[in-house]
Write a structure and sequence with these properties.
By secondary structure, the chain is of the alpha+beta class. Helices cover about 15% and strands about 20% of the residues.
Length: about 90
């Protein structure tokens, strides 16, 4: 929990950047391939790595970082199941 906000840790097949890195569940590419595709509610690729969130990770109140394209998909697919607050953070490349 960061700043008293419950965060959803995304699954990723990228390696850790440093020892003790948090915020993700780090899987091998093979382990990521074995995730149940029907349980993934959000998916994105950044660089050559994949990231996703499983429906079982969603609790009553939590926060998840996602790109705009996947946010639109999440809203359209689950707008009747979850109440979503959106915050846009813009960064320079």
């Amino acid at each position: 929990m960061l700043y008293n906000v419950k965060m959803i840790s995304s699954y990723t097949d990228r390696p850790k950047r440093y020892i003790g890195e948090e915020g993700h569940i780090f899987l091998s590419k093979e382990e990521f391939d074995k995730l149940n595709k029907n349980k993934i509610i959000s998916y994105t690729e950044f660089g050559s790595y994949r990231y996703c969130c499983l429906e079982s990770d969603v609790k009553k109140i939590n926060t998840y970082v996602i790109d705009e394209k996947e946010l639109d998909i999440l809203i359209n697919k689950y707008k009747n199941k979850y109440y979503l607050y959106k915050v846009r953070i813009k960064r320079t490349t």
